[in-house]
Design goal:
Layout lengths: L11 H7 L7 H9 L14 H10 L5 E8 L5 E7 L4 E9 L2 E5 L3 E3 L14 E4 L2 H11 L7 E4 L9 H12 L11 E5 L4 H9 L4 E5 L5 H7 L2 H4 L2 H15 L3 E7 L7 H11 L5 E7 L14 H13 L4 E3 L13 H10 L2
Parallel strand pairs: 4-7, 7-8, 8-9, 9-10, 10-11, 11-12
Antiparallel strand pairs: 1-2, 2-3, 3-4, 5-6
The site of S-adenosyl-L-homocysteine has 17 residues, from strand 8 and strand 10.
C-alpha cells in the first residue's frame, strides 16, 4: 500500500506497471488528484468502478480532517489538521494583496527546543509523511487558490528532510498542483547537513535561515541547535549554498525585548550576515508565547533602530509584522491550546 499523495507524478506509470496495473491510467489518476482535487476515489468518476476499488486499497488517500478553524480579524485563518493516529498539526492561511500564503508543518511538535517557540515547548511526537504534508495543502485549497507556501509551521524541515522535500516536489510538479518552486520557502533553524542536500536537488526553492542571535553565546541560549552547529559552521554552509545555487538566503531574526535587540546586537548581526555573499534579513517582532512570559515584543522604536543599523550597513532588510494574533495563529499556539484543553 502506497499513499496516493506521496507518489510523484512521474512515479505513477512504473508503480502501476510493477503491480500489474495498467500504466496508461496514470494521467487519469493525476487529473483526478490534481485537477479535480478529489476528496475520495469515489469522486474519480472518469475511472472505471473496479479500478477505483483497486486504487482505494492500493493507493488510499490520506485521512486528514480539519478539526478546528479559527479566523482572525486580519483575515488570517488557522486550521488544526488531524490525522488518523490522533495527532494534529497547524497550518495557517495568510491573505495579502495578490497573494494567498500557506504556512505548513512538517512534524508533530518539534525537537529543536528554541526557547521562544511554542511548537518546541513539548518536544516532538513524530515526523509527518510526505502525503500528510501534501494533505495540508490540499485541505487548504478549499479556502482559495494558494499562491505561496512557507515551511514555517511546526517542526524542523531539515530534521524530516526526505518527506518534506518529496512533498514540496509533488506540490511543485507540473503534472501535480504545479506551484512554482520560487513560491515555496523552506525555513530551517540551521540543521547544517540540509544545506548541501538542498543545493544538490537543483530546485529553486527559497531558503530562510532562523538566526535570531548574532553570537554563539546568545544563540546557544535561545536555540540549542547552535551547540551542534555553531554560527561559523552555519554561515559557512549558507555561503556554500549561495555559491552553488546562486540563490539568496533570507535570515530570520525574531526580535525579543531586552534579549537580542540592542544596537550592538544589530551591528554584530550586520557583520555576520556580510559573511554570506547573497543574503537578506527579515526582522520579526516576537509573538509572545505562554510558556515564556519573560519574552516580550520590543517597542516600535527599538525595531526601527535595529532596522536602521542594518540598512546603514547596506544589508537588505524587511521589517515583518506578525499576523493572526487573535486566532492563536502565531507560531504553534493553536495546537498548544488544544493540548492544554485536552489535558495533555
Ligand atoms: N524549524 C524551522 C521552521 C519553523 S519556525 C525554523 O526554525 O526556521 C518558523 C519561524 O518562526 C522561525 O524563524 C522561528 O524561529 C519563528 N518563531 C518561532 N517562535 C516564534 C515566536 N514566538 N515569535 C516570532 N517568531 C517565532
Amino acid at each position: 500500500m502506497t499513499k496516493a499523495w506521496s507518489v510523484l507524478p512521474d512515479e505513477w506509470k512504473p508503480i502501476l506497471k510493477e503491480r500489474g496495473l495498467r500504466p496508461f491510467r496514470a494521467d487519469q489518476i493525476l487529473q483526478s488528484l490534481y485537477r479535480d482535487y478529489i476528496g475520495s476515489w469515489d469522486e474519480a468518476t472518469t475511472l472505471p468502478k473496479e479500478f477505483r476499488e483497486t486504487l482505494k486499497t492500493e493507493f488510499p488517500l490520506t485521512k486528514a480532517d480539519i478539526l478546528e478553524t479559527s479566523r482572525s480579524e486580519d483575515g488570517t485563518t488557522k486550521l488544526l489538521v488531524g490525522f488518523e493516529d490522533g495527532n494534529s498539526v497547524e497550518t495557517v492561511l495568510i491573505p495579502a494583496t495578490g497573494r494567498f500564503t500557506q504556512c505548513i508543518s512538517t512534524q508533530v511538535g518539534c525537537a529543536m527546543g528554541c526557547a521562544f517557540c511554542a511548537s518546541g515547548s513539548r518536544g516532538v511526537r513524530r515526523s509527518l509523511t510526505a502525503d500528510e504534508i501534501v494533505a495540508q495543502y490540499l485541505l487548504a485549497r478549499k479556502f482559495g487558490e494558494i499562491t505561496n507556501i512557507v515551511v514555517m509551521g511546526m517542526g524542523e524541515p531539515f530534521a524530516n528532510y526526505d518527506e518534506t522535500i518529496r512533498a514540496l516536489k509533488l506540490i511543485n510538479a507540473g503534472k501535480g498542483p504545479n506551484l512554482g518552486a520560487r513560491h515555496i520557502t523552506i525555513s530551517t533553524c540551521g540543521v547544517v547537513p540540509g544545506f548541501a542536500k538542498l543545493a544538490a536537488e537543483g530546485i529553486q526553492f527559497e531558503l530562510s535561515v532562523s538566526l535570531h542571535a548574532p553570537n554563539n553565546t546568545l544563540r546557544s541560549e535561545l536555540m540549542p541547535v547552535n551547540k551542534r552547529w555553531p554560527i561559523d559552521k552555519l554561515l559557512e554552509a549558507c555561503a556554500e549554498y549561495t555559491r552553488k545555487t546562486k540563490r539568496i538566503i533570507t535570515f530570520e531574526y525574531t526580535v525579543i525585548k531586552g534579549v537580542n535587540d540592542s544596537r550592538s546586537h544589530a551591528e554584530e548581526l550586520a557583520k555576520q550576515v556580510k559573511r554570506v555573499p547573497m543574503a537578506k534579513v527579515n526582522l520579526i517582532p516576537l509573538s509572545p508565547v505562554s510558556h515564556r512570559p519573560d519574552f516580550q515584543t520590543p517597542g516600535e522604536e527599538t525595531l526601527l533602530m535595529f532596522l536602521d543599523v542594518l540598512m546603514k550597513n547596506r544589508i537588505q532588510t524587511m521589517l515583518r509584522r506578525s499576523r493572526g494574533k487573535d486566532a492563536n495563529a502565531a507560531c504553534g499556539q493553536l495546537r498548544l491550546r488544544h493540548m492544554e484543553e485536552a489535558g495533555n
